[in-house]
Amino acid sequence: MKKVVVIGGGTGNFTVLSGLKKYNIDLSAIVSMADDGGSTGILRDELGVLPPGDVRQCLVALSDSSRLMRSLMNYRFENGSLQGHSFGNLLLSALEKVTGSFEKAVEEAGKILSIKGKVIPVTTHEVRLQMILNNGKVLQGEKEVHLSTEIHKGYKSIYLEPFPQANPHAISEIMNADLVVFGPGGLYTSLIPNLLVEGVGKALRETKAKKVFIVNLMNKKGQTPKFTVKDHLNELKKYVGKDVFDYIIVNNSEPPKELIDDYAEEGEMVKNDLKNDVRVLEASLLSNELKEVQKGDTLKRNLIRHDSQKLANELMKIVDSF
């Protein structure tokens, strides 16, 4: 059975895992621990727990339990003192307190949800994402980085505070994988934070696994304006140490004009400027379904997004080729 490891955070991980779990592969998700927005941020600050939000999404994506159980994990309270919190975040935080270990909490939640695969925090250290802009401004936390509209003017450094070591289980998964899938996701908030953990870049350089980068559909205004596929690769290269990718998956279809118009203020589609690169695999990858906005959710969610099954089809073509 081929071993596939998915690295990222947020909805990108959810989309990739949702499609891949239907296939007969050994599947693992390595998840960024930099999230500090919304419900996750409040739980981190008030309870001193590790961020549950991105892990919850991966657990739900891999779950083979009933639709009701998956809906329960994603349920967000609409009012009262729990407004904005998802049940799954509260469950993971409570399990961490009961077991004394976030990894153990994730493992137990995985049993409850009958997940197909493993969910592994990239680090078990408590960290905060920090970014110093060229103008001297310091963005503290993933939420501030996510909301910034000044990153495109240049930044001096991006790092995790304190500087963490990788979870040994995450490194082991990367080293023993047949295929490592990186992305899609927010460049500075979901992808690069994984590479800022000591040992992850080295593992990606040294593993014998084939490596595939799934390019984002959209650029983010104020952060990656007019970024091309090559721009994204160059930015990742800084933190991995070299261009390690054997395959690059790029969407080649256009969303409806009304959606593009809706996103005009947010950003534009990522252009493929590597059409002659033999590593590039172009495919129509857009979802035709409109994402339901959950009640109580305080974060803005993308409507232009990847289709999980279309992505899985492209990834399985790669898996079946070796």
How would you portray this structure in words?
The chain is of the alpha/beta class and 322 residues long. The chain has a single domain (3-124, 166-319), classed as CofD-like domains (Rossmann fold, 3-Layer(aba) Sandwich). The chain is 38% helix and 16% strand. The chain contains 13 helices and ten strands. It has helices at 10-20, 38-47, 53-62, 67-74, 87-99, 102-112, 142-147, 168-175, 187-195, 200-206, 229-240, 257-262, 308-319, and strands spanning 3-8, 26-31, 118-121, 128-133, 138-140, 155-161, 179-182, 210-214, 247-251, 280-283. The strands form two sheets. The protein has a seven-stranded parallel beta sheet, sandwiched between helices. Strand 8 (210-214), helix 11 and strand 9 (247-251) form a beta-alpha-beta unit. Helix 1 crosses helix 13 (308-319), helix 8 packs parallel to helix 10 (200-206) and helix 9 (187-195) packs parallel to helix 11 (229-240). It is globular. Mean pLDDT is 92; it is low at 292-301.
How is the topology of this model organized?
Elements: E1 3-8, H1 10-20, E2 26-31, H2 38-47, H3 53-62, H4 67-74, H5 87-99, H6 102-112, E3 118-121, E4 128-133, E5 138-140, H7 142-147, E6 155-161, H8 168-175, E7 179-182, H9 187-195, H10 200-206, E8 210-214, H11 229-240, E9 247-251, H12 257-262, E10 280-283, H13 308-319
Parallel strand pairs: 1-2, 1-7, 2-3, 7-8, 8-9, 9-10
Antiparallel strand pairs: 4-5, 4-6
